[in-house]
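Lecture notes, part 5. Sequence design as translation. It can be helpful to think of inverse folding as translation between two languages: the language of shapes and the language of residues. The source text, in structure tokens, appears below.
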């Protein structure tokens, strides 16, 4: 799954990278420790046909939901079932989005029972785009733009960290994902393993485990304690 990630680029930077109109209003705040229900940037296509950089809340709330209370349980949608799920299928068919990210975190259980966090991020510092779906929920007192990140089976060395990973979209696939329609099987194909090999799998400090912590130090590399590594881990 993807349960924590970082997105630190400004609204101006993201608007340029994704060729989108900035509709975030007062801009964006860098967040090195995005957690469920946090407000973060997403790129979607408006009814007028242009790409828009919007602020969405992580954790999809279907339009038919009575309340947004269960949003934290809907941060991820499985690529294998997103096209048929009652909660996700309408958004997958008509409301797909890109979720800009610098990288994401996963935790590996060590031989001593503790957990070591890792940060997956492009070695060249380029932006990542998670495949996402969004929905608008209208409540009695508020309207929420919410979204989920699609996940798929992890590939290559990423599978040694976790059995799932975000569905990452290469730049050449952004337009097709944002467009209406399309063949589901083609849309949900994961990126090639040689493209995934450009990602660094970086051990980071355990402070990221507390959602109250934020700052660039969370993504800084830390030395591993080899005596506590799982014996089956080979990529580090």
């Amino acid at each position: 799954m993807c349960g924590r990630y970082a997105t630190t680029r400004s609204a101006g930077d993201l608007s340029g990278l994704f060729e989108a109109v900035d509709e975030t209003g007062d801009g964006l705040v860098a967040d090195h420790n995005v957690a469920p229900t946090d407000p973060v940037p997403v790129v979607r296509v408006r009814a007028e046909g242009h790409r828009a950089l919007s602020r969405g809340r992580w954790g999809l709330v279907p339009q038919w939901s009575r309340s947004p209370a269960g949003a934290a349980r809907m941060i991820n949608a499985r690529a294998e079932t997103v096209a048929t799920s009652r909660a996700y299928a309408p958004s997958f068919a008509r409301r797909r989005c890109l979720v800009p990210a610098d990288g994401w975190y996963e935790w590996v259980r060590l031989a001593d029972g503790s957990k070591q966090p890792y940060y997956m991020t492009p070695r060249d510092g380029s932006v990542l785009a998670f495949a996402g779906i969004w929905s608008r929920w209208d409540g009695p007192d508020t309207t929420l733009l919410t979204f989920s990140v699609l996940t798929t089976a992890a590939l290559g060395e990423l599978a040694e960290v976790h059995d799932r990973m975000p569905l990452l979209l290469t730049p050449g696939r952004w337009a097709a994902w944002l467009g209406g329609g399309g063949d589901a099987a083609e849309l949900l194909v994961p990126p090639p393993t040689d493209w995934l090999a450009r990602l660094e799998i970086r051990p980071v400090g355990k402070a990221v485990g507390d959602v109250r912590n934020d700052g660039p130090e969370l993504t800084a590399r830390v030395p591993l304690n080899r005596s506590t590594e799982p014996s089956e881990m080979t990529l580090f």
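The translated text above is only one of many valid answers, since several sequences can fold into similar shapes. Residues 21 and 196 are 29 Å apart (CA to CA).
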